[in-house]
Design brief:
Helix content: over 70%
Number of strands: 0
Number of helices: 3
Order of helices and strands: HHH
Number of domains: 2
Radius of gyration: 37 Å
Structural class: mainly alpha
Distance between the termini: 91 Å
Length: about 160
């Protein structure tokens, strides 16, 4: 929509995904601490179980983050390989349906781009060969025409000379 109106914009991220994944569980732990401090008398068993639960959630959250983050890194690597004109097959090794769909779409797009680049290279090579062939013909025909002009001048010169 913005491109149709020729409006340029620059995306500026406020936070990285890493920060969001790490801050969320910490925020939940802080909320837990506040809630537990409001409960009187302080139940130590409840506090301990809650902290264990939240620490487990924190580690699970990090596992999920690493899984997603690795997929993003694979996408970056694939795009760099495509920029360097290397063939790219995106396979993120994920069990998430969305990531598998993204992987298939990126692989298909990369194949199309790589194929188009290969086709362009072949066309450029063919065009260069035809250009060289045309240059040879040009040189031959121009050389022949020069020779014809020289011979014509010689004939004219010979016609002007008196006969003996």
């Amino acid at each position: 929509m913005l491109l149709e109106r020729k409006i340029t914009f620059k995306e500026t991220p406020l936070f990285s995904i890493n920060l969001k994944f790490k801050a969320f569980p910490i925020l939940l732990v802080l909320i837990l601490i506040v809630l537990l401090s409001l409960v009187r008398p302080l139940n130590l068993n409840l506090s301990t179980i809650s902290l264990i639960g939240f620490s487990m959630m924190y580690y699970l959250n990090n596992l999920v983050f690493l899984s997603l983050y690795n997929n993003f890194e694979d996408i970056k690597k694939s795009s760099r390989n495509l920029e360097e004109s290397k063939e790219v097959i995106s396979c993120f090794g994920s069990s998430d349906r969305e990531m598998i769909d993204l992987s298939k779409t990126l692989s298909e797009t990369a194949r199309h781009i790589f194929g188009a680049r290969e086709k362009e290279r072949k066309l450029r090579k063919d065009l260069q060969e035809k250009l060289e062939e045309l240059q040879k013909w040009y040189d031959l025909t121009v050389g022949r025409e020069k020779k014809m002009l020289e011979l014509q001048e010689k004939v004219t010169e010979l016609k002007k000379k008196p006969k003996k």
